[in-house]
Amino acid sequence: MSERESLDARLAAERARWDGAGLRRELELVSNALVDFTSNDYLGLARHPDVIEAAREALRESGAGGRASRLLGGGSVFDARAEEALAKWLDAEAALLFPSGYQANLGVVQSLVGPGDLVISDELNHASLIDAARLSRARVVVYRHADAEDLGRKLALAGSAPRVLVATESVFSMDGDLAPLHELAEICRARGAWLLVDEAHAVGVVGPRGAGAWVASSGSRDFDDVLAARIVTGGKALGVTGAFVACRASLREHLIQRARSFVFTTAVPPAVAGALCASIELCQRADDARAQLVRMTRSLANALGASVPAAAIVPALLGSEALALEAARAARDGGLDVRAVRPPTVPSGTSRLRLVVHSFNRDAELARLLAITRPFLANASKPKIAKPSANVLVVAGTDTDIGKTVVAALLTRAAASGGRAAYWKPVQTGTDSDTRSVEALARGSVLEPGCSFALPASPHEAARAEGKSVDVERLTRLLGEHARSLGDATLIVELAGGLAVPWTDAVTQLDWLSMERPALVLVARSGLGTLNHTLLSLEALRARGLEPRALFLVGAPHPSNRETLIRLGRVARVYEVPRFEPLATAALDAWLGAQDLAGVFER
User: Fold this and answer.
1) What's CA 196's distance to the chain center, in Å?
2) Are 339 and 225 part of one and the same domain?
3) Which of 62, 173, 217, 526 is catalytic?
4) Are residues 324 and 454 in the same domain?
5) What is the per-residue DSSP string for 293-341?
6) Domain-embedded: residue 437
7) Is 169 among the catalytic positions?
8) Which of 48, 154, 201, 425 is flagged as catalytic?
9) CATH number of the domain to which 359 belongs
10) Which of 139, 149, 161, 345 is deepest in the core (most CB within 10 A)?
11) What are phi and psi of 397, to 5 degrees?
């Protein structure tokens, strides 16, 4: 088989998996024959004659193409005009025009932070902010959605990072809700952090003259020293494309020198910049259209029993991918352009219709939309964002053969002393059964492994040796079934090997943790090599928004390593576990009697 055939076969298999899960997507234009309830053209400026004429004028004057990067003479005079107009509108010192919002976020984040710095990101941020944080090579920590208190806790763990950047959308693109910008800014100031606000879905719709959520937030001017930048996309309410970074003049100059997504990309075409000049002017004067938009959005949300959104996005949560697709098809059959949004764009179990209201929509069209969508909402399963079951505690490790099973036995025994407890290992490899070991050491019951393979190797290799594969969906289903069947009892779940161990070619244990988001503890060796493995494991967990409740160091006490991990790892609780000789219940009970594990089991 040729390399090309091999690649085609692999891609075909991957497409088949997506098809089977109902997650395949198709490229579809917004249809002029259908009523638009899907695009981000909130004010209808994409078809405004003044915007179209401004694009034509710029096209005639400066030609079709951006020609080169702006540092090599590309672009046109319309770039600077659009930047000046945008900055004046948003009451910013300066602005810089990028070809897209994705590139703007990449440019800002990568220019402001790097290795050794810290980015703290809302868990529901847009993919461009997530990728920008990862590519910056700064340490990334995720805080709970729109939760200022959790941000404060994460900032308290910032340690010695020289630069700390907090990133949030102002109006979130899938839920339509508003970030608590004032509270976030207060916390950033108290902790010496900068705040980056992506205003893609707010500017043009929210605030006086549509100047966005930052301007609308109470006392925003008091925090201009905290605000690093606002990202304003041209393809939403402005009806064009491109994106601006609204910021201080010093940051604009910095971006021109350091933002790779600006320096190494062709300038926007003159027609785009010219159209933006016109749409910025029109958007400021669109108060009547904004009032119409707000009225209809609130009417739709109230009729659907949804929370009143901050802008124009109303999510109709349906839960399953199949139901969301069926509802979208019914809407299209009824003459309405409505789209289903499914994982991974939104969390598993929260597939939805993303309904977008525009100033040009009419009450009769809204009534038709409600008539079509209400029956589907009545049949919807209650959507749930994946979150940890209250009674599940996962024992994860930095490596293999470091003492996870002993720690799992300790925790199962401790949980059973205060009530009921059970132990479960999703994947067992090798013939030396950890389940039987825990059964001999713990008071709680044990559940048989989700799957077992004879070869003592990584799960994906051990399964492949038997012509099998790990069924990740089945393991997820079993976790839920076990947790529900145990009621208030505690379920201790032990993973196999280190965090990044693959269950399949596509899913690692860390991926699974990211999907299930359970409470967890991390187990590491106490001696030589633990600093690198443990700090990298903590970074990997926090990059996925997972914070371990405790760190267990197994082996002979090593005061220097323990102190370093407390200082640099910033884990709430650190326990030292000896290599028990002999490994017996009496030794485990003696250790447990000297420990306070209440915080590990908090719910």
Assistant:
1) 16
2) no
3) 173
4) no
5) HHHHHHHHHHHHTPPPPSSSEEEEEEESHHHHHHHHHHHHHTTEE--EE
6) yes
7) yes
8) 201
9) 3.90.1150.10
10) 139
11) -135, 165
Domain of residue 357: give its range.
27-42+288-378
Helix (H) or strand (E) holding 373: helix 363-378
CB-CB contact of 318 with 86 (8 Å):
no
In a domain, 423, yes or no: yes
Considering the entire predicted model, what is its pTM?
0.73
Residue 239 and residue 371 in one domain: no
Residue where a domain terminates, one of 239, 254, 284: 284
pLDDT digits (tens, 9 = 90+) for 487-496: 888 999 999 9
In this structure, the answer to whether residues 275 and 293 fall within a common structural domain is: no
Query: Based on the domain organization, do 94 and 216 belong to the same domain?
Result: yes
User: Is 173 designated active site?
Assistant: yes
Q: Note the pLDDT of residue 435.
A: 94
Write down the pLDDT at residue 476.
85
Q: Which residues of the chain have pLDDT under 50?
A: 1, 384-388
Indicate if 115 and 150 belong to the same structural domain: yes
| Tokens 């702006």 found at | 70
Domain CATH number, residue 424: 3.40.50.300
Closest CA to 217 of 148, 307, 301, 132: 148
Last residue of a domain, one of 356, 378, 400: 378
User: Looking at residue 307, what is its pLDDT?
Assistant: 84
Whether residue 206 lies inside any domain: the answer is yes
Of 563, 429, 422, whose CA–CA distance to 490 is shortest? 422
Active site residue 182: no
The secondary structure of 78-119, three-state, reads HHHHHHHHHHHHHCCCEEEEECCHHHHHHHHHHHHCCCCCEE
The reply to whether 404 belongs to the active site is no
Q: How many domains does the chain have?
A: 3
Is 40 part of the annotated catalytic residue set? Answer: yes
Can 302 be counted among the known catalytic residues? no
Of the candidates 495, 512, 303, 473, the one whose C-alpha atom is nearest the C-alpha of residue 408 is: 495
Q: Of residues 36, 79, 150, 169, which has the active-site annotation?
A: 169
- What is the reported pLDDT for 494? 97
Condensed to tens digits (0 to 9), the pLDDT of residues 508-550 reads 999 889 878 889 999 999 999 999 999 999 989 987 778 899 9
Catalytic choice (48, 154, 236, 558): 236
Q: Which two tokens stand for residue 528?
A: 């030589």
Which member of 41, 175, 177, 198 is catalytic? 198
Query: Which residue from 405, 301, 387, 314 is spatially nearest to 347, judged by alpha carbons?
Result: 387
Residue 1 belongs to some domain of the structure: no
Residue 59 pLDDT: 97
Verify that 520 and 546 share a domain, yes or no: yes
Q: Please tell me the predicted confidence (pLDDT) of residue 330.
A: 96
Q: Which member of 126, 154, 404, 558 is catalytic? A: 126
Nearest to 212 by CA among 185, 179, 240: 179
* Catalytic residue of the set 40, 125, 261, 514: 40
